[in-house]
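Reading group handout, session on sequence-to-structure problems. Before we discuss, look at one worked example. The prompt was deliberately terse, the way you'd type it at a terminal:

> structure Histone deacetylase domain-containing protein

The input record follows.
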Amino acid sequence: HKFGEYFPGTGDLRDIGAGRGKYYAVNFPLRDGIDDDTYETIFKPVMTKVIETYQPNAIVLQCGADSLTGDRLGCFNLTLKGHGKCVEFIKSLNLPLLLLGGGGYTIRNVARAWTNETAIALSQEISNELPYNDYFEYYGPDFKLNISPSNMPNQNSSEYLDKIKIKLFDNLRMLPHVPGVQMQ
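And the output record:
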């Protein structure tokens, strides 16, 4: 999650909830340029700890495509490969999964991401070659499913990420009990 001085202004590590909900919100503020390999080093351990803490019976995963490289408003450098590994990891937990699309401002890459993530959810292999259709010209210049990372520098040092991860894990340890909702 990119934290910054723009709407809605959320995502800071200190955004942990309030009142009876204190420590129930989890945010991992990222700096510009995070790439697939770096993202994977935080996604898996953080989500593992969140799953251990919350013990969910189901997961809703929103896949915001504004984290993809080249997004008009985004500032990350993720590819479909990195996005897909996150979906694969959550799917591997074998919990009921509701997969949702999310933001993204370079529409051709949003369509690519949602196509790729739907295929992963369905355990289907799909071609990198895009089929010809009425919108084919929008997917140039390469007309492929996958996108390549840019040369954007990754401003997320391992020291920074480790510091955030330690604080986030400390916050999770502060939960008085496993969160849950009773249905009546």
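Points for discussion. First: The chain has four helices and two strands. Second: Residues 36-54 form the longest helix (19 residues).
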